[in-house]
Amino acid sequence: MNIFRLAADLLHLGSIFILIARLQQTRSCTGVSLKTQGLYLLVFITRYLDLFFSFVSVYNTLMKIFFLASAGYIVYLMTGPLKASYDKVLDSFRVEYLIAGAAVFALVFPHKYTLLEILWSFSIYLESVAILPQLFQMTRTGEADNITSHYVFALGGYRALYIINWIYRYYTEDDYSDYIAWASGIVQTALYGDFFYIYFTRVLKGKSFKLPV
Q1: In 3D, which of 149, 180, 185 has the Cα closest to residue 164?
Q2: How many Cα atoms are found within 13 Å in the side-chain-facing hemisphere of 116?
Q3: Which are the contacts of 60, defined by CB distance < 8 A and separation ≥ 6?
Q4: H-helix or E-strand containing 210?
Q5: What are phi and psi of 209, to 5 degrees?
Q6: Sign of the dihedral through C-alpha 195, 124, 166, 53
Q7: Who contacts 97 (Cβ-Cβ below 8 Å, separation ≥6)?
Q8: Can you tell me where the transmembrane regions are (predicted)?
Q9: Helices (H), the chain
Q10: Are 102 and 125 contacting, i.e. CB atoms less than 8 angstroms apart?
């Protein structure tokens, strides 16, 4: 644990609290991609199966339980109480290609050739592209409410801070390497490039999130 990882984890937690608060307060999931939320639920399920087999720390265990529970709760809200406000037409990204691609990479380039490690690798590869349906939906509409923008920014910021965490660990720990996480994290952060630009130039200046015409 270091300050960069802690800050990243807190930002990740913050993104989830922002989204849940937005869904509960507006009683609408308009502008939120159910496909992205479903992918994150799949990411956490396949990554945290070790909850049943190993114990690292209370912090680690509580974080895993929170991410699983919160992802399940968000999907429940969007498929249950808020289902009427969900726009399936706008949320049309073909996620099966993302899942299949992550599965192929996990089988060809796993961390280790064991079931849990293959599933862990799958979750890492899938997380790197899980935001694509949300970004695609925002591209189709050309805009997003500011709360949703804050949520997406917090997600991107969390991953960017993890890259700093990896750099810090590389120079302070002996024999530290995690090429799968590094490569996937860089890809994931790069996907936020255009979003970050619009967020800093518009949203942080009090304007609404709108893509250039």
Answers
A1: 185
A2: 7
A3: none
A4: strand 209-210
A5: -80, 110
A6: positive
A7: none
A8: 6-23, 39-59, 65-82, 94-112, 148-168, 180-200
A9: 3-26, 34-47, 58-79, 95-108, 115-129, 132-141, 146-172, 179-191, 193-201
A10: yes
Residue with tokens 């810090």: 168
Q: Output DSSP code: residue 209.
A: E
d(CA 101, CA 144): 28
Return all residues near 166 (Cβ < 8 A) that are at least 6 apart. 178, 181, 182, 185
- φ, ψ dihedrals at 210, nearest 5°: -140, 135
Residue 213 has pLDDT above 70, yes or no: no
Q: How far is CA 56 from CA 2, 6, 52, in A?
A: 16, 16, 12
CA distances from 97 to 102, 159, 171 (A): 8, 22, 36
Per the structure block, which two tokens stand in for 58?
């209370």
Average pLDDT over residues 92-110: 96
* Mean local confidence (pLDDT), 121-143: 94
DSSP string computed for 134-190: HHHHHHHHSEE-HHHHHHHHHHHHHHHHHHHHHHHHHHHSTT---HHHHHHHHHHHH
Question: What are the extents of the domains in the chain?
Answer: 3-206
